[in-house]
Every structure is written in C-alpha cells, then in structure tokens.
Amino acid sequence: MVLWDGYVSDELMGTFAPILVYWLYAGFYQLLPPLDNYRLHTRKEESEKNLVPLGVVIKGVLLQQLVQAVVAHLLFLVTSNASSSGVTVQPSLPIQAVQFAIAMLVMDAWQYFVHRYMHQNKFLYRHIHSQHHRLVVPYAIGALYNHPLEGLLLDTVGGAISFLISGMTARTAVFFFCFAVVKTVDDHCGLWLPGNIFHIFFQNNTAYHDIHHQLQGTKFNYSQPFFSIWDILLGTYVPYRLIKRPEGGFEARLIKD
C-alpha cells in the first residue's frame, strides 16, 4: 500500500510526482536564507557570470517537463501490466532494489555518453548544450534548464531506457524518478551544506558537478546524476579540493598536475 492508492493510478503518479518533487525541492533551496557561509560561489559571481535570467530558466524547465510528462504517460500506458482488477503485482523488495540499481547504472551510462558527445561535437555544443551552460553558477531551479532537444534526449529518453531495461513497474518508477530528480536538483544547488547525505555517500555531488560548469572544467566530470564510474574509467575525472573563502563560503578548485 502507498499513499496514493485509491486516489490516482501508479502511471499518473509516475508522470506527475517527479515534476511536483522537482518544484518542491528546488523551491526549498530557492527559499532558504542566503547561507553565504555554504555557497560555492558568491552572489556577485552568480549575477555577473550567469547569462540567463531566472524567468527564462523557469520557462525552459516547464517546457522540458511538459514533454517529459507526455512521453512518460505514454510509456506507462504502453507498458502497463496491471491485472484485470487494475492492480499491478509488485515484485519483492530485493528485486525492486536490484531494478533500482540497474536503472541508476543505465541512466548514468546513457547520460555520460550523450552528455560527453554534446561537449565534443562543436555543432551540438554551440546550438544545444551551451544553453545549459549559460548557468555558469548553477542553482537548484536551473537543474533541468536545457535546450528542449537536449531535455528530450538526455533526460526523458534516458529515463525511459532506464525504466525499460530495469523492468521496474510504474509504482517502483515513481520512487526511482523522484529520487533521480532530487539528486539532480541537489547537484545543481550550489550549496555545500553540512550533513548533506548526498555529499557523504556520493562522490558525484554538488561540488563535483560545479567543477564541470566552470570554464576550466567543462571537459571533465561529465558523469551524472549518480556515480562517477564513467569519468574514472574513461579518463575524464578531474580531482578538486574545497577551499574555504575568507569572506565566507567555499570554492571548488581543480587540482592541477
């Protein structure tokens, strides 16, 4: 039993819950006090370096989520395995855990290679992926600010492939996609908060991805959203260290040979 039983279908929850979670979690970061002692960039850097206003970012995210919702709902309808009573039989928790892990690995592989190619292909970078990098200083609400085609290929198609290969049900997918959304938002939040569980358990975290957004780091740290496996295996991982700024906050700085 889950909270939405008897109210909405798993397929409908799988379509809209990740969008709702995105705005709740990103909004939480947006409404926090300044927290200058935990920022990876100063507010001055954010205003000077970013090349797109917040309103445009919000519209871009909403457009991507519209496409995401349409594709997700069609995917769930096509793959629905509900019984004649309308109830989907859930596999055991260990099997769901394995499906969850497979989906994470598949999503990481897909996003790494598509993301890396969009950097290496000058046409794709100039006309598509550079839109995401207009946010030189990332923040939570901008986590899904992409060119619509990139949003479709990288996130929506990547999510669909992860869902299909893992074999998870729509109900399991609700939790997986909400978790992926929370992790993606956290990676872009620009804050190094003490006790953040993602910073403790994931090498691929806020500072890791912040390095990628900086001009000197755009050829490194392509991995997203979960692990750094592909960067390490294929030589695109770059080490960094967090340095405390005298005026408050941190700076993620590349460690150069």
From TrEMBL:
- Its protein name is Sphinganine C4-monooxygenase 1-like
Sequence intervals crossing the membrane: 12-32, 52-76, 96-114, 135-154, 160-182
Where does it reside? Membrane
- PANTHER family, sorted: STEROL DESATURASE (PTHR11863)
GO cellular component term of the entry, any: membrane
Where's it mainly located? membrane
Species the sequence originates in: Olea europaea subsp. europaea
Protein family: Belongs to the sterol desaturase family.
Q: Where is the Fatty acid hydroxylase domain?
A: 100-236
Q: Which terms does the record give in the GO molecular function aspect?
A: iron ion binding; oxidoreductase activity
Q: Name one GO biological process term.
A: lipid biosynthetic process
